[in-house]
């Protein structure tokens, strides 16, 4: 999978800008604040219809404008044109000029794996952040997962609303709650199955990647869930035992909405045991494992975006990471300094240098 062309209109600091990309390596150089990350943000936006930097869509619209557009030509076995129009009232998506009514029918068409320094939250932050980031990865990979997760969240919201009604009025019948609980368990078991397979597939490559980068081993990602090793009947009983607590608090205390994904290094919590640099290498190892998982499940290589990868990494580790790069994967790298890029990466790459709002292009043979 490749993005051959990108057009931006009123997106961040770009009023009208067109990019023609290399099918192999694309390096974007610029000082902090120059707009280099805005380019890869637009590529990611084209895939997931969201930014990896903000939850507020209005922010990506250039100041003083009413709407922004991101257009891209994506090449797999076929070539298709994708377009997103972002306005203050919402966004619309198109594939080959055809309007797609539901965002869930658009997402997962473009497979992108992004590394960004914020991804350290996969290790450092709380379970809610861990779930959010894993959900984003799975939504890009699996459109079915996205729809099941949406259904689960709708039922969860309905169940919590009904629990609050029961808290206020003890005479409200329990029958409807049982129906909601049954649906919640069904969707939850489907999500649990998909998450379990994904984490198992990641762990097939995770420690191997980490060992190749750091010369150390022992990294695993563990999936923690209330649903582990339980049948539907056993889950029904657990929900029944928690019924009084759920009613008293007006919320559901059991389910995949409470799952967590925790990195361990030789049975130690990675967030406590590994240094900042080692944690960064752990996340890079995860992203590189994703490349393999995406390739196996979709039959095509994803697009790999490495935003500010080379800051705080020594040259030896950078060289080891380079060895993972294959000719059949399209890569985008942002950096503040070309000197941080090894000559092996520069070969067969296209370099975009941003200076004072202007973009200079150079192709290295």
Task: Give a written overview of the molecule.
This protein is α/β, with parallel strands linked by helices. It has 2 domains: 177 residues, P-loop containing nucleotide triphosphate hydrolases (Rossmann fold); 175 residues, RecF/RecN/SMC, N-terminal domain (Glutathione S-transferase Yfyf (Class Pi), Chain A, domain 2, Up-down Bundle), CATH 1.20.1050.90. The chain is built from 11 helices and 15 strands. The strands form 3 sheets. It has a 6-stranded antiparallel sheet, covered by helices on one side. A 6-stranded mixed sheet has the order 8-12-13-3-14-15, with helices on both faces. A hairpin with a 2-residue loop joins strand 6 and strand 7. Helix 3 packs across helix 4 and helix 5 packs across helix 6. The protein is globular and about 75 Å long. 35% of the residues are buried. The model has no long low-confidence stretch (mean pLDDT 90).
Please sum up the structure shown.
The protein is an alpha/beta fold. The chain has helices at 36-48, 121-124, 127-141, 143-168, 175-214, 232-241, 243-249, 270-273, 276-298, 315-322, 343-346; strands spanning 2-11, 14-20, 25-29, 67-75, 79-87, 90-95, 98-100, 112-115, 219-224, 260-265, 268-269, 303-307, 331-335, 349-355, 358-364. Helix 4 (143-168) packs across helix 5, helix 4 (143-168) packs across helix 7 and helix 5 (175-214) crosses helix 9.
Q: What attributes characterize this protein structure?
A:
365 residues; alpha/beta; Rossmann fold; Glutathione S-transferase Yfyf (Class Pi), Chain A, domain 2; 11 helices; 15 strands; globular
């Amino acid at each position: 999978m490749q993005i051959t062309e990108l057009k931006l209109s009123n997106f961040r600091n770009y009023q009208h800008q067109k990019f023609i990309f290399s099918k192999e390596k694309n390096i974007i150089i610029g000082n902090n604040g120059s707009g280099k990350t805005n380019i890869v943000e637009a590529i990611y936006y084209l895939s997931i219809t969201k930014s990896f930097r903000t939850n507020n869509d209005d922010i990506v619209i250039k100041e003083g404008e009413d709407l922004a557009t991101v257009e891209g030509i994506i090449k797999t076995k076929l070539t298709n044109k994708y377009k997103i129009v972002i306005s203050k009232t919402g966004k619309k998506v198109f594939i080959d000029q055809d309007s797609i009514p539901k965002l869930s029918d658009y997402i997962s068409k473009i497979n992108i794996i992004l590394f960004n320094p914020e991804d350290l939250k996969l290790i450092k932050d709380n379970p809610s952040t861990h779930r959010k980031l894993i959900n984003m990865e799975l939504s890009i990979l699996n459109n079915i997962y996205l729809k099941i997760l949406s259904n689960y969240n709708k039922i969860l919201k309905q169940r919590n609303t009904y629990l609050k009604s029961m808290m206020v009025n003890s005479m409200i019948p329990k029958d409807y709650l049982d129906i909601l609980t049954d649906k919640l368990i069904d969707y939850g078991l489907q999500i649990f199955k998909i998450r379990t397979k994904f984490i198992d597939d990641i762990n097939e490559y995770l420690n191997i990647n980490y060992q190749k980068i750091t010369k150390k081993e022992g990294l695993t990602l563990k999936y923690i869930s209330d649903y582990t090793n339980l049948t539907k009947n056993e889950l029904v009983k657990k929900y029944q035992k928690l019924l009084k607590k759920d009613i008293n608090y007006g919320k559901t205390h059991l389910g995949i909405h409470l799952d967590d994904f925790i990195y361990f290094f030789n049975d130690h919590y990675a967030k406590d045991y590994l240094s900042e640099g080692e944690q960064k290498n752990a996340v890079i190892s995860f992203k590189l494992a994703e490349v393999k998982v995406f390739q196996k499940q979709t039959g095509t290589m994803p697009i790999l975006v490495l935003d500010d990868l080379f800051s705080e990494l020594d040259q030896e580790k950078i060289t080891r990471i380079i060895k993972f790069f294959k000719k059949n994967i399209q890569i985008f790298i942002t950096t503040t300094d070309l000197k941080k890029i090894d000559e092996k990466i520069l070969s067969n790459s296209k370099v975009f240098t941003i200076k004072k709002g202007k973009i200079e292009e150079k192709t290295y043979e």
